[in-house]
Structures are given as structure tokens and as C-alpha cells.
Model the fold of this input.
Amino acid sequence: MAQGLRSFWGWGLEDKFMDRVGRENLANVFASLFGSASTNSRPLDVRDAPKVKDIEIADPRLIPAKSLKEFISRSPHERLSHSRGKSFIDVVRSFHGEFSDVPDLVAFPRTEPELMSIIDWCYSSNVAIVTYGGGSSVVGGVNCPSIENYQAVLSLDTTCLDKVLEVDSVSRSALIQAGVLGPALESQLKQFNLTMRHYPQSFEFSTLGGWIATKSGGHYATNQTRIDDFTQSLRVVTPAGIVETSRFPSSGAGPDQNGFFLGSEGIYGIITQAWMRLQDRPQFKDTVGVKFSNFGSAVDACRIISQSGLYPTNCRLLDAVESFQSAGVTNGNSLLIVGFESAHCPVDNDMKAALEICSDHGGIYERDSNKDDSKKANDSLTESDSWKSTFTRAPYLRDAIISIGHIAETFETSVTWDKFSEFHSQIMQRVRSALDETCGTGVVSCRFTHLYPDGPAPYYTVVAPSSHEDQIHHWSHIKDVVSSAIIELGGTITHHHAVGKDHVKWYHQEIPKMLLDSIERLKELYDPKSLLNPGVLLGSEGH
Amino acid sequence: MAQGLRSFWGWGLEDKFMDRVGRENLANVFASLFGSASTNSRPLDVRDAPKVKDIEIADPRLIPAKSLKEFISRSPHERLSHSRGKSFIDVVRSFHGEFSDVPDLVAFPRTEPELMSIIDWCYSSNVAIVTYGGGSSVVGGVNCPSIENYQAVLSLDTTCLDKVLEVDSVSRSALIQAGVLGPALESQLKQFNLTMRHYPQSFEFSTLGGWIATKSGGHYATNQTRIDDFTQSLRVVTPAGIVETSRFPSSGAGPDQNGFFLGSEGIYGIITQAWMRLQDRPQFKDTVGVKFSNFGSAVDACRIISQSGLYPTNCRLLDAVESFQSAGVTNGNSLLIVGFESAHCPVDNDMKAALEICSDHGGIYERDSNKDDSKKANDSLTESDSWKSTFTRAPYLRDAIISIGHIAETFETSVTWDKFSEFHSQIMQRVRSALDETCGTGVVSCRFTHLYPDGPAPYYTVVAPSSHEDQIHHWSHIKDVVSSAIIELGGTITHHHAVGKDHVKWYHQEIPKMLLDSIERLKELYDPKSLLNPGVLLGSEGH
Done:
């Protein structure tokens, strides 16, 4: 488990929220960067984090059955913490102490029978259940539904189910309880010299079950990377009964069993454990930063690498703005971070081949030609390291930006290579006009998080000046514009943030109508009273 | 299209059926090998192939609407050809002229509207539809249902939908009609310098749509290989409407769209076209045959290679019997055929690393140390080549064996590495006792077709003496024994032959009951009158 108290309103640990001095400096930076063009007339408005005691919260409307009380919390801190996820709008609302819908109860089942008894009680009492793992959803995936539709709402926190139950070192797989958070999972596997090597940005505050339910995008930039590829079998408790899929390396028998639950975002049931495919710990690693003066050439290099069969572990392209902001590249170049790792074989030849592709496309990199120590720092490595550290700190920085009344949020997609150039130019253009319309100015940047042979997964970050009063409607407008553009231009509404409630409108444009009907049919089978994660994926809340 | 007339009763082309002299020689070989131990008192009973004109076949019970006549055949040759697939029992029955259930009509729609008009007509007239691609199913997947349950039965042959419609060379993908057979697909892609590189043993006589509907296992022995991995999007005509999935490199939005149809074996609708991910044509190739005196050590080498991240294209392990029969290895060794290919980079380093793993496990191989010509034959290469040729000829050989009254059939599975050793020893033991009980003797052999980091896909071949009278019940007994053993010992009933009708009993033991219910719910949605592929996957025929 993470050390320290979890923030009830923002990302991660309470004491990692930037101090006031830091945030005042940040506000000044925003003022210098955007001051004159911003529509915000009050650029310096640094506010402090809310406190639980200042937030009014009604008593739980239902008292749980005696047998359940032991693992059910009614504490305001837990109820507020579990009321929503960590999207920009979630955090803004929480920061301002706006908690309209709060779960009445938070359950922490320690065993599957306890979890089943909660479902039974909720089913008998018309209590909605929102499954909550690490709570890191940025798409409304764990947000409390309108409480008036139910006798009560219960947040079902799975994080007490946090053990690695069995390790099969021969098949390199393990049976793992789904409520385990990333760091605890890795520390339990370490003693077996194994690793999941699945590091979403939310790693510290997300669970295995959450990764599976949302088809999490993983550590590897190429080849098999999504949690789907590493899920051998899973066990799901649904109101209609338990489903345990078969544990095979692969099967040609009917539709993929795990596929019924991968990406189902908790609307059918609660994943309690899974057999996962693991990795040996890497022994050979190399990372090189390659600079490109032309973003288009860097994109071409990425495409050729993605189709080369080289499978770099890392192949993240940062455009000029991201290279500057996240990796300290000051000459307007784009930075491609290319990394290889292997538990078994040296990676030098693969790296050499990938760097040749980069050179062919005008990429420039520096390597110590006499490199005899893989830890020896070089210019490129420093930039990659800098990016990595920025990556994990980003959500904390976003909370600081929220506290000074400005905007920092991301959106992401994937699109085939043939469409990318036009897609990207249109997206950049439309975000910029939306920024001009709302905030007066702002910055949008792009990086590739994952590469497939048939297309990249571009990830966009928007930073803009706003105000505490306008943050939400400014961002909502931008999000509307870009989401509609993504669908129109042939991208998916989400490559790895999931659908939740926030993407429902566009998801329903993306998915064929009959497949949505299919999901509804399965929902009726597994959750006939429609009490699980109301509003998620299907959009309709209540009955 | 394949050159020559398709056999109406056996595999492939009519004129490739072994001539009488060859089959007489084969019968003598069987007699020498098995004569004394066989329960068959009449070891030499070579019979000739049936002729269409000798088979009684009732007139079609329904005359199609006028507008459909143009692309609907009532010819006895087509109706008999389309009455079943190519499992051992299918071919034995057909060889003996036993055709109980024969489709009344065979439709060859040339466009999607024609296909839709057939479905409409069938739906209005209570006509069952069996979708038929190349007809190579070995699990009863295209077998005519009991005709008395329907006004008529129509076999819907998709092979006129055989064009590559659009090629996107940048994203390396193409929109392809689903009725195209393997060779025609590859020849159309060749002009774009692209390839699917998907070569099931049925390659010549199976279609893209069939591969998708049955989750075909592909060319690559490791890493991404199943047709699932190469399916970008697909279009399915169902009685309830058309579903066209979204074309993305990858998406985190809800359950995998293609997953609803991959492996659905035609029970929801007919796949008419798909966007498929393609490959560049390989420029670098190397194959080495490695011999192991100990099968268990070869298995260990396979496991380590499968977990190494090396991703050989080929990594097929033949046990001593298969090495002898298929690759001419006479010293009782197992043969591991290791191959690498790449369109972009030399494969020497990867090969070297894989061979080192083999050496570590006692593998012996010969390479010309001065190899300067990749085409230069060496001992090992010859064995691999020999195996390849055996691979494509195997189904013809099986038909010849059927014609002399004996048994040749295969079964396959996948199982995790931790279970493999016990699994394999039990399977071999139980097949041998089943052979003793039925045929008195026989041979069972094993190879690995695909390797996953968490387990192999073992493929077993059974050859045994029998008689024309006993072939079916002998094999049925053996198949029953091994199928039950596979489930009991933790394997899947099929790694890549699919479920069809023949595996239904065991599939229903393998799949969780609620997932079977799920498939039934979806069946009701897409095919409410239950007219598509009756009996396949779900097992129940009729209404």
C-alpha cells in the first residue's frame, strides 16, 4: 500500500500536494506565459486544498446489516474519497468542496464471501454498487450515480483483496487478487524474480482489477502491451453468479472467454482475482533519446519502427512542446525515446537497427562510442530520465494547476497511420480555436504512448489559463470539441483511459448500435436489477 | 481459385487423390507395420473413390424465389460437396457414399445485397443456412443439420466474394472480402508487396471469413499468430442487420468489438469483409533443425525460447515418431525446427540466441560454418523442408488411408507449461490403451504447432489399422477418450480446429455456464429464428 494518507479530493498522497509557495510560483509562471492573452482577468488566485471537516455531508441513508458492519465504513473521509475519480473536472469539483452525490457507505470486503454478501444485501435493498479499485479513473468510471435513484449507494473498495495467491514460475504466471495496487503487486512478485511490467501512469493508485476492467494500456510501447494480452483467466462475481474463465495459454474454442469482461468496466460484476502472465525481470536495458527537427519525419520513423518487428519496449515520441516541457529539449526538436529491455539477450543489435531507422529519417542522437557501462549517463539518457520523472509527477502538477484556477488535462486516442497526419493537424487546429474561444490562449502538445504496426496512440495535453469560476465550462467546451473531432476524423474515443461516464456520448457514436444492444443483453443477464456501476458504458442511470 | 475439380467427398482436388497402385502399396505398408497386432482380420481392402452419379440424392424441397435462382445451384455435385466438412468421420462417410443430410440448395452470392436477399428468403421460409467458406472444417462446422427440422437447408458458399477491395500500404492493411481462399488472397496482395502470412494447413481450401469465424491459428509459431491479432475490423451480415466494427489500431473503449464475432463460428451472422493487418514480404530467412535425444529436454528448450522474447517464426517440435514419419529422422531423436524471418533486419543474432538455448538443453544441429548462401542446403534444412512438404500433403494421405480402411486423424489443444509433462504422458497412455482396445495397435505422435510464454499447443496424430466397417466406431471411441482426457487434464478442447458440432459436448464442459448463456443471449439478438449454423457451438439444433 502507498505510504501516507490518500488525498480525498486530488491525486495520490495528501502530503505530495505542492506547497503554497510552489503554487504561487506556478501561478506567476502562468501569468508570464499567458497573462496578456488570457481571458482571465484575475490571473493570480491561489487557493488552498479543502478539508473534510469543512464539507457538509448527509448521514448514510441506510444502515448495513449487522454482519456487514465490520467491513463497511461510514466515515466522511472515506465517503468523500470514494465519491468520484480523478478527471480534471472531478478534481476541480472536489477541490472546491462541491460534493453533490456521495456514496452512503464504503465497503472493504476482505474475502470473496464478504464481497458476495455485500452484493446480496445491495440487491435485496436496491442499493447501487460502484466498484472502486485505486480510484484513478479519469473518465467518471467510479463516480457516484445520482443518489436519489437508489435506497443508497455503496462504494465497493476492492483494495483489501491484495494478495498474490499462487505463483507458477514454470508457466510464468500468477493467481492474483484483483484489488492489489501496482507497487504491492510488484513487491510480492519480486521474491519470485518475476514482474508484471505493467506501468500505467496511475500505477501507484490503480489495481489489477481496474486495469482488466478498463483494458489498461501498459508499459510496452510496442507489441503485446494491453492488459488483455497478459490476462490468462479471471474470476468475476456477478449478481447472477460467479464466472471463472478457463486457464489456457490460448484457445480456439468459441469467443474469447476473458473478452466478455475485459473492458466491461464493472457493469457485469466485480473481478476478484485473475491468473496473469508475468515477465522475467529485465537484465539488459538501453535507452536512447533521438532528436528530430521535423515532427513528420519522427512520425515516419515511428511508423517504420512499429512495422519492423523490432518491438522496442519504449518508443515514445514527444513533440517539440512536450520535449521542451517534459524533457528539457530547448531547440524546438521533437524527442523520440527509444528503449529496449530483455531478461535474456543483449539488446544492442535491436537498438542499432532502430537507431538506423531513426537516422534514415533525419534523427540525431549522441552515444558514447566507448560505452562500457550501461549506467553511464549521456545527454540523451538524461532527457529520457527527465521525461520519466515528469510522467509520474504529472498528476500532482495538474492538481497544483487546478488550485491556481487554470487548466491542465489530457485526451488520447489511436488512429491508423494513413489518417494520422490529417487527424493530428485537424486536432491541433481545433483545440487551438477552442482555446482561443474559451481561455484566450493555451498550449496543446502531443506524444505517442503506444505504437502499433497499423497506427499510433497519440496522447494530447492541454494547459491553459482560466479561473476558478470558469475552469469547468472552459474545459468542458474544449473536451466536447476534441471528442467530436476524434470521432469525425476516425480515431477511437479512448485508447486507454476507458469510457466511464464521460465518454459515453462518443462511445455510442463509435460502437455499432447492435454491439451496444449486445452489451445491454449481457447486462440484463449478469446484473438484472442494473445496480452495478450505473451510467458507465451504457449511459443510462437508474432503472 | 484452386486449379482442378474439388473432390465432393475428400480433401482438396479430385485428381490429387492417391492412385490405386499407391494405395495398394500403402495398404501393404499398414499390413507390415500393424498386421499381426491389428484386430482387423482383412488387412488388405483397398476401395475406390465414390462417384456422384452413384449416390442417390432427393430433389430440393424448396424452389428459390426467381430473383435468387441466378446464383443458387441445385446440382448434385455441389449439394454433396457442401453437405459436410473434412473430419475423418466426414470423409469416411462421404467415401462410402453415406449422405443422409444434404443441403437442398447451394447459394453463391456475388455481392452483399445478394447475400442479404438469401438471408431474407431463408428467414421468410424457415430455411436453415450453413455458411460455407472453403469447407475445410474438421469439427462438423459446415455439416448440414437434420433436414427434417427445416423447410429446406441452404449452404451459403461465400467464395464468390473473393476480392481485395482496398489496400492501405501506409498502415499495412487491406479491406478484403471474406470468401477469398488463401492462395487467391496472397496473389492479390503480392502486387502490393504485402502478405497476410497466415498459413493454416487448410490454406488452399479455407477462406478469410472461415479463419476469422474459427479463430484460426496461423503461420507464426510464437508471438502474435492467431487471426484475431490481424483482424482490424470486420463486417457481418446478421438476420437482425449489418454490424461493421470500427477500424482502429487498438482501442480501450469497452469490450473488443471484433471479439463478439471472432470464434463465433457463424452462429450470429456471415462475415462478408474485413480490414486485415498485413506484413511486408520477408527478405531474411533462416531455418535450422535441432535434434534432441530426449523429448523432455526439447520441451524445456521450447519453453525457454517461448519466454525469451526472441519470437521465432517457426518453432515446431516433432517427437521421435513425427520426426521419423515426417522428416526422415531415423535415430529416434526429436526434431525442433527453428525458423526466423524478417522483412527488415538480418535474423542471424536471433537465430544464434535461440540455438544457444537449444545447445544448453542438449540440442544438436549442423550448420555450414562458412554459410554464404542462404539457399545452400544443409542436413537440417533438408529435414525441415521434408516436414513442410509432408505438412501440406497430409490431408491427401489421410484420404488414401481412409480408402484402405484404416485410421488417420489428429487432435490438438493447448495447456500451460506447468501441466504439460503430466498431461502429455497421460494423453499418450490413454490413446494407446484406447488403440489397444479398438484397433489392437496403432501409433500416436505429437508435435508442437504454436508456443506461448505460458504453454505450448501440442498436436497429436493417430494412425492405426482398422477396417471399412469399424473405422468410425473405432475412431469415435478414441476421440471420446482423448477429448474427455483433455478436459480432465486441464487443456482446451481445441487450440485451432474450432468447436463446430463435434466438440460441443466438451466445449460445454470447458466454458463457464454463464458464458454459454451469454452466447445464447447474443444468438437470440442476432439470429432470433435460430437458422444460422444450427448445432454449432450451442449444440441444440432446430427451434
